[in-house]
Amino acid sequence: MAEFMSLRDAIATHLKDGDSVAMEGFTHLIPYAAGHEVIRQGQKDLTLIRMTPDIIYDQIVGMGQARKLVFSWAGNPGVGSLHRIREEIEQGRVAIEEHSHAAMANAFEAGAANLPFAVFRGYKGVDLPKVNPNIRSVTCPYTGEVLATVPAVRPDVAIIHALKADREGNVLLEGIVGVQKEAVLASKRSVVTVEEIVDDFGPRNANAVILPSWTVTAIVKVPGGAHPSYAQGYYKRDNAFYIAWDKIARDKAVFLKWMEENVLAGGPESFAAQARRFAVAAA
Amino acid sequence: MAEFMSLRDAIATHLKDGDSVAMEGFTHLIPYAAGHEVIRQGQKDLTLIRMTPDIIYDQIVGMGQARKLVFSWAGNPGVGSLHRIREEIEQGRVAIEEHSHAAMANAFEAGAANLPFAVFRGYKGVDLPKVNPNIRSVTCPYTGEVLATVPAVRPDVAIIHALKADREGNVLLEGIVGVQKEAVLASKRSVVTVEEIVDDFGPRNANAVILPSWTVTAIVKVPGGAHPSYAQGYYKRDNAFYIAWDKIARDKAVFLKWMEENVLAGGPESFAAQARRFAVAAA
Amino acid sequence: MSAYTPNEIMTIAAARLLTNEDVCFVGIGNPSAACNLARLTHAPKITLIYESGTLSTRPTVLPLSIGDGELCDTALTTVSVPEMFRCWLQGGRITIGFLGGAQIDRFANLNTTVVGPYDAPKVRLPGGGGAPEIASNCGQIFITMAMGTRAFVDRLPFITSFGHGKGKGDRAALGLKTKGPTKVMTDLCVLEPDPDTAELTVVSLHPGVTRDQVQAGCAWPLRFAADVAETPAATEQELSVLRDLHARTKQAHGVAA
Amino acid sequence: MSAYTPNEIMTIAAARLLTNEDVCFVGIGNPSAACNLARLTHAPKITLIYESGTLSTRPTVLPLSIGDGELCDTALTTVSVPEMFRCWLQGGRITIGFLGGAQIDRFANLNTTVVGPYDAPKVRLPGGGGAPEIASNCGQIFITMAMGTRAFVDRLPFITSFGHGKGKGDRAALGLKTKGPTKVMTDLCVLEPDPDTAELTVVSLHPGVTRDQVQAGCAWPLRFAADVAETPAATEQELSVLRDLHARTKQAHGVAA
C-alpha cells in the first residue's frame, strides 16, 4: 500500500546514490518539485532515464549528479538545446544510452509487463544501432522478418507527478499520460507527487487511468509540483519559462547562480505560488 | 471515414464467404445483433476468431457456417459447455486453433500494432504447444531467456458493438473494453454496431476509449444489439438467458428450432425490446 | 452449529486463507465465492482482480460471468484485456491465483482441455482460458475442486496448466520463480504439496470426513500428513455471509433462489 | 500582394500539399504551423496527431511543445505514448509524417543527432526522438528545412532517420513498404526525389528566387527538373491566417508578439 510522506522523506528513503531513476511525464506532469528535492539532497552517480530529458534533467545533470543518461530526445521543446546536458555530453562527462522514442516507449511497456525486452519495427537504415550495442534484433518465427529489440527499462525508482490521490493511496492520471503508468509499474519503487488528496475520486470514466495503491510506494502532496510543466485542469505550461531557460542554462555560472537561488534555497512549498500564476478554471 | 449503413448492407458488403472474422467483446458488448445478421445472410466457410466464443459462436458454429474456430476458452460462462461447439469439435466437423487468453490478447495487440507476432511469458510446462504448431518461441537477445510467441491476429473483418458513435463516425467504448479496440485496429475492415448516435460525445475523460472515424469501416445503429450480453449504462446482462441456453443448445433439433424462430425469422429491430427488459437508469 | 454442505465448507476453507494484503486473480464459481466471502468477513481490504480487466473490484453479488457489469461498476478502474494479461498478470502483481479444473493429478497439474486424444476428443472441455499463465505468473495458486475419481486422476490426458510437473524441482527447471499450487481445497479435505516431493498430501479433513471417504474420491493412493488436522467447522457468521451472498446473487441473476 | 518571409512561403507551400483525407503525424515548429494552416484554410477535416498521444486534435494556437495542454484539450482523445508508437505510428495509420533536421543529404536522409564523431561530438544535437520510426512507418514523408550549406550537406556525419539511403531501391532493400520523403519544402524552393535515382531535385522555385540562390544554400551540386515551376505566391488569405495563428500563439505563450 502506498505510504503518505513528506517530499523530503520520500526522496531520502527511496532514492540512493547509484540508483537508476525514471522521472517521467511527457511534457505534461513533469515532476519538478521532486526533481528539485533530489537536487537539494544531492544523490550522486544517478542513471537518469527519461524519453525527453527536458529542463528537469538539464538541472540534475548540470549539478553533476548523473553518471549516465538514458534518453531519446534531449532538447528544450520548441526552443533549442538543453545547454547543460549538451555541454556535459560534448565534454564526455556523462555517459549516454540513446534510443528513439518508439524504442523507449516500448522499453517502458516491456518493463511494466515484466518482459526482458520489447520487439518493434524500427531503426531501419539508421546509425543509432552502430553506436548503441543495446539495440539488437530477433527474427519472427513465422515470417522470417527481422525486427528491432530493446531491453526492458526496469528502474530502481520511478518518480512521477499526478493529478490526485485518494485516501487509500490510489493515484489518478488524466490528459497526456505519456509513459508514467508504465514507468511506475516497471520500477522497483515509486514516488508520486500529486496536486491534491481527495476522499474519493467520485464519478469517473470506468476506464480512468489509475494506479492502484498497491502499485505505488510513496505519495506526497505538492500543489504546483509540475511547474514549469503543467497539470491538466489545474495550471498551464509556463512556456515563457521554457524560453527563458535557454539563457539561464547557456552559461554555467549563470546556471549555478540560478540553481542556488531558486532550487537549493527553495522548497516544495514554492511550487504552489508558481502554478497559481498559470491557474486554469476547474473543468 | 466510417460509413453509416443498415445492418444488412454493412454485413453483406463487408463479410464474404471464407473470411476470417473477429466478433469481439469480453462478456460485455458482444455483437449479437450483427452475429444474427451473419446467420440470416448465411456466409460460409468462416474462420471465427474470439477469445471466448460465447453463445454467439455457438450459434454460428451450430448453423454450420464456420470452417475454423480460433479461441482460448469455449464455454458458457458460469454455466458449462457450449454444446453446439463442443459437438462440432468432438465430431471433427470444425477445425480449431486453440490458445490461452494471454496468447490471444497478445495476438490481437500485435495485430493492432502491425507486428507479425507477439512475445510473452507463457505456456510453461503445458501441452497446448504440442498440439498447436503456431505456438513457438524466441530467445531474448539480452538474457537468453526463451519466451513464447504467437502470430498476430489480422482478421479480414472485426465486428464489435459499442456504446455510441458521433455524427463524424467516431466510436466510444466504456466499461469492460476487452480487446475490441485492438480487434478493430488489427482488421482490414470493421463493422461497429452502437446503442445510439449522438451529435457529439460532450464532456468526457481526456483518455476515453475512442476509435476515430478513420479507423472504422461501417457503423450501424442497433439499440440493444448486445443482448443477451450487455451495454454498460444501458442494460444489464441477461444472465437467465445464458443459463437457459444450456438446454436450448444441448439438443440439435431444439437448437435449430430456436434459431429458426428467434434468429432466421427475426431482425435487428427485435433487440431493442429484449434489452429494454434489462434497462438500467442512465448514469 | 448449522449443518452445511461439502461445497460450503470448501468455499469457507478457501476464504480463510486470504488476507487483507492479498491481490487475488479471481475465477468464476467457487473462487469468486471464496474471495468475496473473505472480503465480507475477515479481509475487507483484500484486492480482487477479474481477468476481464476490473481492478480492485467489490461486487455486492457474485458475477455469473467473468465480465458482469457489477464487476466494472464496483471496480477502482477497468483496463483492457491485453493490459490485464501483460502488465498485471505477467507483470507479477498478483499474489494469489485461483484455479479449478475438470481433472487434477497428484502433482496438482490441471486439465480443462480435453478427455481422450486432442484430435479425436471423447469429451471436449472449454479449454485453458487464463489458466496456463495464471498458473505460472501468480505468486502462488490455490485450487478448489470437489473430489471424485473422475476428477482426481492418476494420469492427466492433457496438461492445461502446470502445477508441480512430475515432482519437486520441475517448476524451477522450467525457470518458474513462482510457488505454483500451495493448497488444494476440496469438499472433503485440504491438500498441500509435500515439502520434499511436491506430491499432494492431505493435511486437514473437514469435520466428520474419514480418510476412507477421501481416498474413495481420489484415483491415486493418497498420502496423508503425519499430523492430519481437522478443518475448523464453518462458523455461523461464515455460513450466513456466504448464504446471503448466494441468495443475493441468485436473485440478481433472475434465477429462483 | 503582401510581402512575406522565406519562412512563411515554406510553411504555406507545405500546407498546400495537405488534404482533408490526410492523417498527419505532426512535429513542432514549421510542420505544426503548416498542418494547422491547412486545417484553417482548405483542409478543415485533416486529421492531426502529435506524438504525445493526442488523436485528431484541433489546437487554436500552435503548441510550443509536442505535449501542450491545448493539444489534449482539443483532441478527440489522448492515448498513452506506448500505444501511440505501437498502434498508431507502427500500426501504419499515418499517411503523412513531417520531419525536419539539422542536416539533410541529397537522398533526403536526415541528421538530428550529432556533428563530429558520436563519441566525441563537435556539436551534440537533441537526437532522433520519434524521427527514425516516423521516417519508416508513415505512408510518405514531407520535410521542411531552411536551406544553407551547413544544413544541406554533401555527407551526413550520422543518419538519424532514413530517407532514400544511397539512392533508388535502398528503401525496398531494407523491407520498407512506405514511400519515404516525397517532398522537401525549403525557404527557397521545393525539391522532390528524382523518379529514377531518388536524388533530390528542384521542382519549383519560390517567387523571385534564382537557381544560383538555391545552389548557394546547398553543399552538393543541385539537380533541377526539366521543367522547374514557380511556386504560386502566398495569397492574402494564406498569409493572414498564418499570421493570425502565429500572433495568437505568441500571446498564448506569454511572449511579446
Explain what you see:
The complex is a heterotetramer, with two copies of chain A (283 residues) and two copies of chain C (257 residues). With 283 residues, chain A is of the alpha/beta class. Chain A contains ten helices and 15 strands. Chain A has a domain at 3-40 and 154-277: Glutaconate Coenzyme A-transferase (3-Layer(aba) Sandwich), CATH 3.40.1080.10. In chain A, strands 1, 2, 3, 4, 7, 11, 12, 13, 14 and 15 form a ten-stranded mixed sheet that branches. Chain A has a three-stranded antiparallel sheet with strand order 8-10-9, with helices on one face. Chain A has a two-stranded antiparallel ribbon with strand order 5-6. Chain C has 257 residues and is of the alpha/beta class. Chain C has one domain (6-252): 3-Layer(aba) Sandwich (Glutaconate Coenzyme A-transferase), CATH 3.40.1080. Helices cover 27% and strands 21% of the residues of chain C. In chain C, the strands form four sheets. Chain C has an eight-stranded mixed sheet with strand order 2-1-5-10-11-12-13-14, with helices on both faces. In chain C, strands 3-4 form a two-stranded antiparallel sheet. The longest helix of chain C has 17 residues, at 236-252. The model of chain C has no long low-confidence stretch (mean pLDDT 95). Chains in contact: A-B, A-C, A-D, B-C, B-D.
Core attributes:
heterotetramer, A: 283 residues, alpha/beta, Glutaconate Coenzyme A-transferase, ten-stranded mixed β-sheet, 24% strand, C: 257 residues, two-stranded antiparallel ribbon, 8 helices, 14 strands, 27% helix
Helices, strands, pairings?
The complex is a heterotetramer, with 2 copies of chain A (about 280 residues) and 2 copies of chain C (about 260 residues).
Chain A (H helix, E strand, L loop, with lengths): L2 E2 L2 H8 L5 E4 L8 H10 L4 E4 L4 H9 L3 E6 L3 E2 L3 E2 L1 H8 L4 E4 L2 H12 L4 E4 L7 H4 L4 E4 L6 E6 L5 E10 L4 E3 L6 H7 L2 E10 L10 E3 L6 E4 L17 H12 L1 H13 L5 H7 L7
Parallel strand pairs in A: 1-15, 2-3, 2-11, 3-4, 4-7, 11-13, 13-15
Antiparallel strand pairs in A: 5-6, 8-10, 9-10, 11-12, 12-14
Helix pairs in contact in A: 1-2, 2-3, 3-4, 5-7, 8-9
Chain C lengths: L5 H11 L6 E4 L3 H11 L6 E4 L3 E2 L13 H5 L3 E2 L2 H9 L6 E4 L3 E2 L5 E2 L2 E2 L7 E2 L6 H7 L2 E5 L25 H4 L7 E5 L3 E5 L6 E6 L5 H6 L6 E8 L5 H17 L5
Parallel strand pairs in C: 1-2, 1-5, 5-10, 10-11, 13-14
Antiparallel strand pairs in C: 3-4, 6-7, 8-9, 11-12, 12-13
Helix pairs in contact in C: 1-2
